[in-house]
Amino acid sequence: MPAPVNRLKLRLAAGETVFGSWLGMADPYAAEMVATCGFDWLLIDGEHAPNDLRSTMAQLAVIEPSSSLPVVRLRDDDPARIKQVLDAGAQSLMIPMIETADQALRALRATRYPPEGIRGIGSSLARASRFSAIPDYLKTANDQICLILQVESRAGLSALDDILAIDGIDCVFIGPADLAADMGHLGNAGHPEVRAAVLDALARIAASGKAAGMLSTEEGFIADCVKAGARFVGVGIDVVAYVGAMRTLARKYVR
After folding, report:
1. Which residues touch 141 (CB under 8 Å, ≥6 apart)?
2. In CATH terms, is domain 7-253 a member of 3.40.50.150?
3. What is the pTM of this model?
């Protein structure tokens, strides 16, 4: 029996455009609610949300039975943390703050077992192998990992072509908020200079044959990004949606 087929990896490889939402509440009950909503994918945020390994694993467990495909964003490219999240059962990872081809290659190698990479062997006690119920896990796991690298600085954009030349990277995601700050427009990801850089990067990624990714809650900019070539498309953030709805409700009644 091989490792489970990664349907997100397959859909991106087939050229599909998939829409999803960030999960920042760090709670499996909240994640399970969003998993009933019909998004193509849901991203458990371990960079800016207060998630740890156990909360991430609990959210993976409640998302997996749904039609939404889980993605985990780590806080950095530490191989030890990558190893732990993979062992916890994640098959699709987003790694933030990639700025060089060497860093991208290190992240890729951290997701693969030898000889392709450096992932440590511990699947016999891991959720990823269904606790040894998948006998061929070690031999088949590499092929089912979907790696999404996040480029969100001027240095990353300068190295983009070199990053895109690396085989095994499934998607390159452009992070507009950090890019805006690095470009001198802190807190203004909608600045025309930032948006132009994002759209140009998405087009370059799409032209390379890899999937291009982005996140926005603005309908018009989402449409522009899809037109530019984005196929891994984030359209919402659970925390923002929740507090937005609750604040609207409060303003309706509280004077």
Report:
1. 3, 86, 113, 123, 128
2. no
3. 0.97
